[in-house]
Amino acid sequence: MSAPSTPAGHATSPGAHWINRFAQLPARFHTRLQAQGLPDPHWVITSDDCAALLGWPTDWWQAAAPAEQASALAVFSGQTRWPGMDPLATVYSGHQFGHWAGQLGDGRALWLGELQGPEGPLELQLKGAGRTPYSRMGDGRAVLRSSLREFLASEAMHHLGIPTTRALCLTGSALPVRRERVETAAVLTRVAPSFLRFGHFEHFCHHGQHDDLRTLLDFVLQHLMPGCRARPDPALAVLEEVTRLSADLVAQWQAVGFCHGVLNTDNMSLLGLTLDYGPFGFLDGYDPQHICNHSDERGRYAYAAQPNIVWWNLHALAQALLPLVGSGQGEETDILALQEVLGRFAPHFQARTQALWRAKLGLRQAEEEDATLVSDWLALLAAERVDFTIAHRRLSAYDPAEPSTLTPLRDLFVAPQGLHAWAQRLADRVAREGLPGPQRLAAMRACNPKYVLRNHLAELAIRDAEVGDFGFLQRLHQVLRRPFEEQPEHEALAGFPPDWAGQLCVSCSS
């Protein structure tokens, strides 16, 4: 949170700019209702970067509201709303852990409305503002612990250059909420061009509501993917676009060692955004089979499995779109057309992955041996569980023209013989490209982050925040805004995780 930069009294609710396009869909798509506000709320943290997307000043959260408007704290803790907001919860269904889960919906999320921002429309959504008709057995609340993790992750992923929903602010309250233990409540405000999920299409297809399915597709074509409208088969075109976006997204996750943890179809964004941060984590020691979700007993969503799971989820979306493809009768030619589109996932993912890994190794030109060079490097890391982020950052300092620059990387290995042999192969490869060392290393540092949101860092912020101290949270937030910079004053936040970090456990309630 930042100090005021404009005079108090600045209007924070540009009501004339609320466009609320999704709210104009029929009632079958959503339920209008009011939030259940937090009692005696307080600010926890805000994001100036996210506020700028909305065209709001940095002091929006503390500026005095006009007499006829509620304060920002009251609005974003769910106590009331500004003119122009149209709160609602949307209905969707989906597959969870590979099984059809039936109707789901926004069980603890409440769509506030859609603003016309400086760069385009953006939806705002409260998470944790009470029960909705889709809460099932839940209380509709969110706890400070999980909300703080999602706030930090949303903003950290954005600054890593990875598509994601954003976090505008986090409010808290002493209201008790029971999870594994009694915790305090919080409300997170999320921002995105759209919160539509694969599960929205799955819901209407499963219930045979093909007219509503068509209405939803038309909404997407008109507002989110207008380039697909003129294609011979718009539904196929949408699937093709979602396939491309999803392949790009998971390739970027793999390149930074990000594990989502619960890649159900209802957690997959139609726009290829990282959505619903729950039991996520960044790799510490490199283990391709790492499972970040304690609830994932069989490892369905392990790090190495993520590309195949995203592909599986795309098949579920394709099945939901089948009634809108071609003849609309699910004929064999329609199925084959969908399969052809899905078949483009693997080559697109591979091409994107290879490009990302070439950049991480400081290479510009593609060569046939690149895939082997990368796989052998990852095998070296896996053999000794070398820290993923630190290894890549130290690799970004290795200049084959200066052999001593390999030493910090070598020190990560107990048995460095394999590293020496691999480093010579990399040196030969670098020499063929002829890029000057300083230029190459600068490019590597720009894609190999020094700072990521490790679980133990989030845990430290949580422990302080739970006793009302938000200082470390704000410091960590600022550091994660510049993940590729050295920031020597924050060096400790780029270090190895402490021993106790191995005991941390995150699950679907996180």
Automatic annotation (TrEMBL):
Catalysed reaction per UniProt?
A: L-histidyl-[protein] + UTP = N(tele)-(5'-uridylyl)-L-histidyl-[protein] + diphosphate; L-seryl-[protein] + ATP = 3-O-(5'-adenylyl)-L-seryl-[protein] + diphosphate; L-tyrosyl-[protein] + ATP = O-(5'-adenylyl)-L-tyrosyl-[protein] + diphosphate; L-seryl-[protein] + UTP = O-(5'-uridylyl)-L-seryl-[protein] + diphosphate
Cofactors, names only: Mg(2+); Mn(2+)
Q: What is its EC number?
A: 2.7.7.-, 2.7.7.108
Q: List the GO molecular function terms.
A: AMPylase activity; ATP binding; magnesium ion binding; manganese ion binding
Q: Its domain of life?
A: Bacteria
List of residues binding ATP: G105, G107, R108, K127, D139, G140, R190, R197, D276
Q: Alphabetically list the UniProt keywords.
A: ATP-binding, Magnesium, Manganese, Metal-binding, Nucleotide-binding, Nucleotidyltransferase, Transferase
Amino-acid positions noted as binding Mg(2+) in the UniProt annotation, renumbered to this chain: N267, D276
Q: Where are the transmembrane segments?
A: none
Which residues participate directly in catalysis?
A: D266 (proton acceptor)
Record's function text: Nucleotidyltransferase involved in the post-translational modification of proteins. It can catalyze the addition of adenosine monophosphate (AMP) or uridine monophosphate (UMP) to a protein, resulting in modifications known as AMPylation and UMPylation.
Family label: Belongs to the SELO family.
Q: What name does UniProt use for this protein?
A: Protein nucleotidyltransferase YdiU
Q: Which organism is it from?
A: Ideonella livida
What gene is this protein a product of?
A: ydiU
